[in-house]
Design a protein that fits this description.
Oligomer: single chain
CATH class of the largest domain: Alpha Beta
Structural class: alpha/beta
Number of domains: 2
Largest sheet: 6 strands, parallel
Radius of gyration: 24 Å
Helix content: 40-55%
Bound molecules: nicotinamide-adenine-dinucleotide, uridine-5'-diphosphate-xylopyranose
């Protein structure tokens, strides 16, 4: 009945939204999304989706049960589909050789073996996850290891979506990159995938390359984006020492169109499941090739990011008379960025833990990330000193300071006069995202500290 049958293994932040958009744009294709985690599948099949992404719910409502299906039966999915996307997680390895740096490929390799065990006909296998260069080669080696008659063509099709804007990124991508072997069968497989995307992406935006360039391009894209944030964050420190304003500097620099204005917002640091992991992955690759100078360069981006988060705490201590003991600090935002409930590698985790170390009381507020925040801080000693309150006005009650850690639009629009009134005095605001009207908050009575701008204090 359907022209193409597509499976995606891994129903996470990438697998779910990506397949939902393909289903929406390709009614002639049947899309099945499978995951090892039955609870996740149950959530995808319910009214409470496992992830929050603007616009996702509407698409799921349109497509689920028509040409989009979620299942825990991976083996059957492999048997019944000809094109298999692999979108499982590839976190940083936390054991053995390469611990803390190399990609942990165990989930990915298990998937490769599972495909081999269950396939009864030829398949196109598409790497959607972010992987070290040459991983496709390993995938090929596993898939051809039994010498049976089934053909596997491995393609690399990295995903460039950003969380919080995933649906828009998927519907209007800057580019789609498809890497393949340059053999007749590799090129045929590549063309099949091009045809799928061509249902909604203009042809000139679908670019093809050799498979290794494709794998490397994904790591490099994230490294370049993160590098801009660490660059502007490194400049924010100089601004604080010299009374320059990082917002004005970023504007002046970004107006050079060779540089451009995007990704120049100084912040408490970048977070998310991708940047740190993928840069470490690149650093490890460089070290494996004995390119230590290159590895050190890229590792510096991570170091500045850690420094920026620690600096935020040191600034708080400095401003609040060198002690945070028993002070109540309200964190506005726990997600690693706005419009998502994802907290993976969120700077807020580090900030909350450091505040607990300083013996402060922490009130966490966030419109979408409180469940994840609870899990992130569950193992900490002094967890009894943390409370979780979604309503920002209630969260700020009896607090000595408010720290803005996520750039939720909601926090720009709060009535800070109301917040000031319920706080201890002197009241402090630490704007880790530079999103508030600092002068207005200062005029209300707050002592205002931001990133890379002179503080506004009443002392
Ligand atoms: P995720 O953790 O949200 O989802 C991965 C899913 O894979 C989980 O639901 C997990 O249960 C499932 N899984 C793990 N092993 C499995 C197996 N053997 N069989 C079936 N399912 C299995 O991760 P994510 O954020 O979606 O990322 C997936 C990949 O995409 C990673 O390589 C990541 O680097 C890459 N990526 C992520 C983003 C992003 O913004 N999150 C963007 C681009 C690329
Ligand atoms: C990133 C890439 O943007 C995306 O292309 C890739 O596919 C996955 O990794 P994501 O991690 O979802 O996406 O979010 P992104 O918008 O890149 O933000 C990452 C972090 O940088 C967030 O913590 C964000 O708040 C921070 N950031 C971003 C800044 O601090 N300043 C900026 O100017 C931009």
């Amino acid at each position: 009945m359907f022209e193409k049958n597509i499976l995606c293994i891994g129903a996470g932040y990438v697998g779910g939204p990506t397949m939902a958009v393909i289903a929406d744009k390709c009614p002639h294709c049947k899309i099945t999304v499978a995951d090892i985690n039955p609870e996740r599948i149950a959530a995808w099949n319910s009214d409470r989706l496992p992830i929050y992404e603007p616009g996702l719910e509407e698409i799921i409502k349109r497509t689920r049960g028509k040409n989009l299906f979620f299942t825990a039966d991976i083996n059957r999915g492999i048997r019944e589909n000809d094109i298999i996307f692999v979108g499982v997680n590839t976190p940083t390895k936390d054991f053995g050789v390469g611990a803390g740096m190399a990609a942990d490929l165990q989930y990915w390799e298990k998937t490769a073996r599972q495909i081999l065990e269950n396939a009864e006909s030829s398949k196109i296998v598409v790497e959607k996850c972010t992987l070290p260069v040459k991983t496709a080669l390993a995938m090929e080696r596993i898939l051809i290891s039994t010498n049976n008659a089934i053909r596997f063509d491995v393609l690399s099709n990295p995903e460039f979506l950003a969380e919080g804007s995933a649906i828009n990124d998927l519907e209007n991508p800057d580019r789609i990159l498809i890497g393949s072997r340059e053999t007749p069968s590799g090129i045929k497989a590549r063309d099949t995938l091009v045809e799928i995307y061509a249902n909604w992406v203009p042809r000139e935006k679908i670019i093809t390359s050799n498979i290794w360039s494709s794998e490397l391009s994904k790591l490099v894209s994230n490294a370049f984006l993160a590098q801009r944030i660490s660059s502007i964050n490194a400049i924010s420190v100089i601004c604080e020492k010299t009374d320059a304003d990082v917002g004005e500097v970023a504007k002046a620099v970004g107006l050079d169109d060779r540089i451009g204005p995007k990704f120049l917002n100084a912040s408490v640091g970048f977070g998310g499941s991708c940047f740190k992991k993928d840069i470490l992955n690149l650093v490890y690759l460089c070290r494996q090739h004995n390119l230590d100078a290159v590895a050190d360069y890229w590792e510096g981006i991570i170091k500045i990011n850690q420094y920026q988060q620690e600096r935020f705490i040191l600034n708080m201590l400095d401003a609040m008379f060198h002690t945070l003991v028993d002070k109540r600090i309200c964190l506005l935002g726990f997600a690693f960025k706005a419009n998502t409930g994802d907290t993976r590698e969120s700077p807020a985790i580090f900030i909350a833990k450091r505040l607990l170390e300083e013996k402060a009381e922490v009130v966490v507020s966030d419109p979408k990330a409180l469940d994840n925040a609870r899990k992130d801080l569950a193992g900490e000693s002094r967890t009894e000193a943390v409370s979780y309150i979604e309503d920002p006005y209630r969260a700020a009650e009896e607090c000595h300071a408010v720290a803005v850690l996520t750039e939720w639009d909601l926090y720009r629009k709060l009535d800070y006069r109301k917040i000031y009134d319920v706080m201890h005095k002197p009241a402090f605001i630490f704007d880790g995202r530079n999103i508030l009207d600092h002068r207005k908050c200062y005029d209300m009575g707050f002592n205002v500290y931001s990133i890379g701008k002179p503080p506004l204090t009443h002392f």
